[in-house]
Amino acid sequence: MSRKFVRAIFPGSFDPITNGHLDVIGRGIKIFDELIVAVGRSPIKDQLFTPEERMEMIAELTADMPGVSVESFDGLTVEYAAKKKADVILRGLRSLTDVQYEFKLAMTNRAVTGIETVFVMTSEQYGFTSSTLIRQVASLGGDVSRLIPKSIYNRLQKRLKK
Ligand code: ADP
Q1: Residues 6+ apart with CB under 8 A from 151
Q2: Which residues are catalytic?
Q3: 122 to each of 53, 74, 128, 150, how far by Cα in Å?
Q4: Which of 94, 97, 109, 134 has most ligand 1 atoms within 8 Å of CB, for mutation?
Q5: Which residue from 13, 14, 21 has its CB within 8 A of the most atoms of ligand 1, so it is best to mutate?
Q6: Rounded CA gap, 25 and 160, in Å?
Q7: pLDDT tens digits for the chain (162 residues)?
Q8: Which atom of ligand 1 is nearest to the CA of 14?
Q9: Residue 67 in contact with residue 29, Cβ under 8 Å?
């Protein structure tokens, strides 16, 4: 019997994409047949890049990953997942704090539509990497070059100079 084709979405803000996100994408595509990285368009606090810029950066970095595509969405993640006929939502875990928040989110999403969430744990070296902290540290002149790809680092520097 052949295995069912499994499509996942990986929703997030990705402002900007980090090595931690890329790690999750790399692990996710080994499990699923298709992975849609879905950039949320709802306004986030301290937004640095527009949804289009965020998508462009992700597309560049995942261009050589078969099965991975990038889109953006408005509104509820579960509605977007249903529209895309996604089987699961993929999320990354860094710490116990993430577990607490993600647990509630996954439970709510399952209660609303029945969709399952699958979690993957990041590499230890990215366990403390977050887009929010990267934006904050970089804006104060800190060196975040080990936490994000070079192309993102360059764009971040350029944006912060403005
Ligand atoms: P959101 O605003 O939805 O949390 P993020 O872009 O911050 O969007 O994160 C999207 C997903 O990626 C979340 O599941 C988050 O836990 C996960 N994630 C973010 N950074 C990392 C990391 N360094 N390692 C593993 N997962 C991560």
Answers
A1: 57, 60, 61
A2: 21, 45, 94, 131
A3: 24, 26, 10, 20
A4: 94
A5: 21
A6: 27
A7: 678 999 999 999 999 999 999 999 999 999 999 999 999 998 877 799 999 999 999 999 999 999 999 999 999 999 999 999 999 999 999 988 899 999 999 999 999 999 999 999 999 999 999 999 999 999 999 999 999 999 999 999 999 987
A8: 6
A9: yes
CA distances from 143 to 98, 120, 150, 152, 153 (A): 24, 27, 12, 13, 9
Q: pTM score, two decimals?
A: 0.95
Q: Which two tokens stand for residue 73?
A: 């969405």
The tokens for 157 are: 């520097």
